[in-house]
Amino acid sequence: MIRDFKQFLLRGNVVDLAVGIVIGAAFGGLVTAFVKDFITPLIAAIIGTSKNGLTFRVGAATFLVGDFLDSLIAFLLIALVVFFLVVKPVNYLVSRSRSEDSPDPTTRKCPECLSEIPIEARRCAFCTSEVATTGA
Question: Do residues 56 and 65 touch, judged by C-beta distance below 8 A?
């Protein structure tokens, strides 16, 4: 059982997934720090208050609008990066691979029984009727 577990862990997809998660977490931390240290203070300077001033109270509850804005902007930046650097290129590659010309056909349908027969066949292997050659 330990050998199977080791084989599972060393499989390429699992390692790729682990690397992706680690890099994604590091990137998320980087974007969060960027938003917290640069973007939110810029917004607060434009509004004319500090990040801590971006709050409101309802009764005894204090709502931290500044922290929410940090998280929202970080999410949007990460989503934009993933969309433009992962989703768009993959969609382009998939559409490009689908639009490539298909190879010349090697079979055709028998006019009598509609079975697939080789393109150069003179007689159908299924119903034994004679078929005209295509001359290809």
Answer: yes
Quick: pLDDT tens for 77-93.
Answer: 998 988 998 889 888 88
Full-model pTM? 0.54
**Residue whose pair of structure tokens reads 């938003």 in the numeric block:** 35
- For 86, the token pair is 């992962």
CB 73 within 8 A of CB 35: yes
Residue pair 68/54 in contact by the 8 Å Cβ criterion: no
Six token digits for residue 9 = 């862990």
Q: Any residues with CB less than 8 A from the CB of 119 and at least 6 apart, and which?
A: 105, 106, 107, 108, 134, 136
pLDDT in the model for residue 67: 81
What pLDDT score was predicted for residue 121?
86
Contact of 39 with 73, CB cutoff 8 Å? yes
The amino acid at residue 55 is: T
> What is the predicted pLDDT for the residue at 4?
84
